[in-house]
Structure prediction request, 490 residues.
Amino acid sequence: MWHSATVRTSLGFVVLAVACAFLADFRITAHDPWGELGRLFLGLIQPDFTAVDYLGEAILRTLAFAFVGVSLGALVGMGLALVFHHRTVRTACAFVRAIHELFWALIFLQFFGLHPLTGVLAIAIPYAGVFAKVYAEILEESDPEPSRVIPHGTGVVSALAYTRISLAWPHLVSYTSYRLECGLRSSAVLGFVGMPTLGFYLESSFSQGHYATVGALLLLFYVMIATLGLWVRPRLLPLYLIAAPFLLGSGLPIRWQNVSRFFTEDIVPAPLRQGEGLTGLMTWLGELFATEALPGIWNTLLLTQVALVVTGILALALYPLISRHFKGRVSGALGHTVLVILRSTPEYLLAFILLQLWGPSMLPAVVALAIHNGGIIGHLIGRRSNEIALRQDAPRGLERYAFELTPRLYGPFLAFLFYRWEIIMRETAILGILGIATLGFYVDSAIQEIRFDRALVLIVITALLNIGVDILARWLRSRLRLRHTATSEP
Prediction:
């Protein structure tokens, strides 16, 4: 039901988003945007699979990076989850998961180059932080009673395996499967920084105007995501995990002197390298904040706020597509397909496409963020609506939507939206690599200019900003008494 606190909070976010929209740049500057969009649409409905001679290799590399990165992240995350109650562990996990995979990739590229280790670590490190937090929450929510009745002298590992982990196993498996889907999206996006995954070939095909090839690659990616539950079977999983490391490729040899120089010289602030001392460092930081950090933070916050509200509006409009209270058999299958496509398309990939079609502005970023996250939340809320039993004389159509279902779903909807808030900000920052003036734009510029000290400071600011939004979102969920657990993720 509607509660005054949730209504006031929602209105406050909407008003703030409207104010931010007036300050943002939403111009369409491309010469023929709708013509380009039409040609892209023709490529999607008339894909050319024969033109993609590298298709098999691209898919295998995408799968390999996802499996190895997610598996390594899950393994480390489970270990960290067991000691997650320590403040140091919680803080470290919050920091590493606040940095986007592409930022990690840009860092590792500087000393590993285009080596498979770059892609694996770029996925594994932030995912380890995510897994640690979520696994700890799942284990904490499991029934503690069995652990109290185990025989005295049982080892710690055995006690965990036969009590909490055993009880929480279905939730652990479910969430890990969801993160594998996320890992496939992350793996594909790594192609935009040079790794040989689907994103690399998508970018090159799109830049050359080969829309039929783009359509083939996109459709195969959607099929790969949609059929994940069919080919990722428990019996086949060990085979995938054994084969994946051998499918990563070899890459260029690692020059370990580059690794040493990166940590001992490259990321040391320039004033300290040049012997200017603390005074020079403060001047350097002041100039960095004034010219790059503050403009980047301002644009990141603007874009995040608008995207958050548009995401919420889109999610509320989409959830009836998979709700049993609105659909028939045919429309239900179509609605499920639409939401799979929306939530499976990485924001970075969609923003890249829209930027090519509409020109450089914040509009492609807002649309990309809203489509992806709106698809995810719409799926979750639609699934939640299927648990509601309506009376036989319940109204139909718009009245059912507005007066029967949406008021009951609004609390869970806000919980999911606030959960995605930090994720939307994280993606907003990374979209700067595409040319939008968020924090990622200044990070990428600093790296291109080989000023890694400036890039590292900006990445740390991005992480702290994400952590701050996550804390605010958790406070709002607590204040509004909104219940949401990680096991509810799709």
In short: Residues 33-266 form a domain with the MetI-like fold fold (CATH 1.10.3720.10). The mean pLDDT is 85.
